[in-house]
């Protein structure tokens, strides 16, 4: 009886039901779009941070900021000035630690032993500057009338030949690139994990001191490197075993070599620049950060949340808009939709006074009348939810199809957070000056099951709110009211 009467009443008042459902649908669709865009913002920001931070990394530990590096650590190049062979090419390499500050390798073990730390691995980030070229000897040309005889000179006497040196000079090329020493025994942590091997292979755990290198795809293309090629770093030849492509943004380094080899090249034995940390519980990262900071002195701990605070550009602006303005706009529209649905349902009950009064005169209890009104309102809410989900999915699809490109800049914040390990164009670890990095990311609007569940919940809530308005009015009706409306 309940469902039969429900079906007949909804069919008879389908225009009013469609108006209520449409109002709820618009509010629910807006919520879906805003939530999807916010989720897309989060994914876009994760892409920016991922290219700098490394997959699986929750935080990094670097040496606390100190005074600037001494002049003895600045690049110096020495060439053989007594070489008489003009055709000989002069070449000199300078390998420098990013930021000129390092931590002892024992710090890695100490960090790994802290409460809440699942694993920790050290890495050494290097800048390599190679200068090569050759000097050309100038030619001495004697002026006319000059010589060693006194007869050819005013005042007589002997003297040095008069003339000038023409030509000559120096022609040198400068090649600067970055090298990252990675701990090959723990491949699941570190910047290399944010790249995908697209050719060849990655390191094996046994290649701790092997002369092998994995090249970034962009750098390999520029230098025409491929698997099997040879790369020379400070007179040491390394064999290219793999080509890695960054999954988003720029790679953390141009070349990756085993950590021991990087320490040997730079002369920093048992030293690292960055410690990559994985927490046992991603929800306790703040607590782990405090533990490491208090127990491991002289270090700076930076989490992905700290890096996220330094993201600026249109991505940051759009994210702020989606999370603040979009959220409050959604709430306002939902409140308006619920109120309209409730008022329309209450108004419909007022127009059905004779109907409900007659039903009560025939023996319907107030509770049964209320349940009938609430049932109709819930069905309207579910219909509105279905329409809202369809509209929301369409809106999210349009955003993804258009895929507007947002720019994100990640550089120093007031606290001085910079990219871990520096990377191409970087300037050191956290807490030291680094060049800002700008990336372009395409915005998407993914819709997940949670968002759909939220939409269904809102639809039911809207129906219940509307039903509560109407049910309250219907429960107050008396059979005598129906008799007053009989013409």
Fold and architecture overview:
By secondary structure, the protein is an alpha+beta fold. It has 2 domains: 2-50 and 313-484, no CATH class; 65-78 and 87-135 and 166-297, no CATH class. Helix content is 42%, strand content 23%. The chain contains 12 helices and 18 strands. Strands 1, 2, 4, 7, 8, 9, 10, 11, 12, 14 and 15 form an 11-stranded mixed beta sheet that branches. It has a 3-stranded antiparallel beta sheet with strand order 16-17-18, covered by helices on one side. Strand 10 and strand 11 (236-246) form a beta hairpin. Helix 2 (14-53) crosses helix 10 (366-402) and helix 10 (366-402) packs antiparallel against helix 11. The chain starts with a helix and ends with a helix.
Topology:
Blueprint: H1 2-12, H2 14-53, E1 59-63, E2 90-97, E3 103-104, H3 106-112, E4 117-136, E5 139-142, E6 163-166, E7 169-182, E8 195-200, E9 212-216, H4 217-223, E10 230-233, E11 236-246, E12 255-258, H5 259-266, E13 271-272, E14 274-279, H6 285-295, E15 299-303, H7 304-308, E16 311-312, H8 314-351, H9 353-361, H10 366-402, E17 405-410, E18 437-442, H11 449-475, H12 479-484
Parallel strand pairs: 7-12, 9-11
Antiparallel strand pairs: 1-14, 1-15, 2-4, 3-13, 4-7, 4-14, 5-6, 8-11, 9-12, 10-11, 16-17, 17-18
Helix pairs in contact: 2-8, 2-10, 2-11, 8-11, 10-11
